[in-house]
Design brief:
Blueprint: H1 3-18, E1 35-49, E2 61-73, E3 76-85, E4 88-99, E5 104-112, E6 139-149, E7 152-162, E8 176-177, E9 185-200, E10 204-219, E11 225-239, E12 242-253, E13 259-264, E14 267-272, E15 274-286, E16 294-306, E17 313-325, E18 328-338, E19 347-348, E20 357-368
Parallel strand pairs: 14-19
Antiparallel strand pairs: 1-2, 1-20, 2-3, 3-4, 4-5, 5-6, 6-7, 7-9, 8-13, 9-10, 10-11, 11-12, 12-15, 13-14, 15-16, 16-17, 17-18, 18-20
Length: about 375
């Protein structure tokens, strides 16, 4: 991706997005003491599955190494994270920000796309269906304005491309359009808007919100651009140790044919060009007792309902618990799925080749510093 168009687009976006806030843009808070925090993590994984090649079941593997850095000086702040997996390495995020005042800020760089439930529409290591469709915990290059005040939280973002600007690069963390040689599309410019309203009571907190995006994707062979649109409604309710989440999301690629390709973690796969994605989650945080600092148990159910004659339904359910102790954090997940790409299906939201349910038990142990 050329540097000059990126800088020019970012400056235009900066001028547009500043208009959403109230007050002068130079009304920055008083200078804070400079800060710099360095950290990282190492994680190990072990799993058993009833599909695919049984080789490797029960083996303990080094799943991740990562380094983190974040800091601030006055109104300026930044955060970056880089990761090493088995066979590839990838940027997770890398952005710089500017606090306009206590309620508003701007961030520029590779950052999380504001869409739906934040920071995640799930509680497990395995995420929900939206993650594999680029609708959850997705990181792209762009400029995001945030305004949070009086229970309202508003995001407006202009994104110019995926994190690398290269659809033929499959070694990435978040899922983006892929040029797999047959379905040759890449992400281009996109506008994201997200609004959420939170109500706090004596015993409960409730948030509801709406998200939408519109943009374009490019055919790598012809250079032609096509529309790319999506929307979501979400609800989260917390009472005591319980958290309930619900989300409806929808996306559509206005391209010829019924499929596009996505990729991450070295592998491309196909999805339906239009689908509804439904999520229903519940989590219970146990009161602190015994050896662990915290235990949270959850069930995350999600489904991708493909639209079109050649489409189908993909299902995923993750039941498990997470365990926190000092600098360690462990997930124990039982994943079941039907017609789901990573668990034996041909893709996501496509006509099923096999209606069987598949199961995987996964344990991920991480140490964070």
């Amino acid at each position: 991706m050329a540097t000059r168009p990126f800088i020019r687009g970012s400056l235009v976006a900066l001028g547009l997005l500043l208009g959403f806030g109230s007050g002068p843009v130079w009304a920055t808070p008083a200078n804070d003491d400079p800060s710099l925090d360095l950290g990282g993590a190492v994680r190990f994984n072990v799993g058993w599955r009833d599909y695919g090649d049984p080789a490797g079941n029960g083996d303990i593997d080094l799943e991740l190494l990562r380094v983190d850095a974040k800091g601030s000086r006055g109104p300026l702040f930044f955060s970056l994270q880089y990761r090493w997996y088995d066979g590839f390495d990838a940027v997770h995020h890398a952005w710089a920000g500017w606090r306009l005042d206590a309620d508003r800020d701007l961030k520029l760089g590779i950052q999380q796309v504001p869409f739906g439930l934040l920071p995640y529409a799930s509680h497990s290591f395995w995420f929900g269906s939206g993650y594999y469709l680029g609708l959850e915990d997705d990181y792209d290059i762009g400029l995001v304005y945030r305004h949070a005040e009086g229970g309202h939280n508003f995001h407006a973002g202009l994104f110019l491309a995926d994190e690398y600007g290269d659809a033929a690069r499959f070694d990435r963390y978040s899922f983006d359009l892929a040029d797999d040689g047959s379905l040759r599309y890449r992400e281009r410019e996109r506008i994201n808007l997200r609004w959420a309203r939170q109500f706090e009571g004596a015993a409960a907190t409730t948030e509801f919100g709406a998200s939408a995006f519109t943009g374009r994707v490019q055919d790598q062979a012809s250079g032609r651009r096509h529309g790319h649109h999506g929307a979501a409604l979400h609800l989260q309710h917390q009472r005591g140790a319980w958290t309930w989440q619900a989300q409806w999301a929808w996306y559509r690629y206005d391209v010829p044919g019924a499929r596009v390709a996505l990729s991450a973690f070295l592998f491309p796969f196909e999805i339906a060009t239009e689908a509804h994605v439904l999520s229903a989650n519940v989590a219970w945080s146990l009161p602190r007792s015994g050896w662990f600092d915290g235990i949270t148990c959850y069930n995350n159910l999600s489904s991708t309902q493909g639209v079109g004659a050649a489409a189908g339904d993909s299902w995923q359910n993750v039941a498990g618990c997470s365990f926190a102790k000092g600098k360690s954090f462990t997930y124990v997940d039982l994943i079941t799925g039907r017609n789901m790409w990573f668990i034996g299906g041909p893709g996501i939201g496509l006509a099923p080749g096999d209606e069987s349910w598949r199961t995987r038990l996964n344990i991920n142990i991480g140490f964070y510093f």
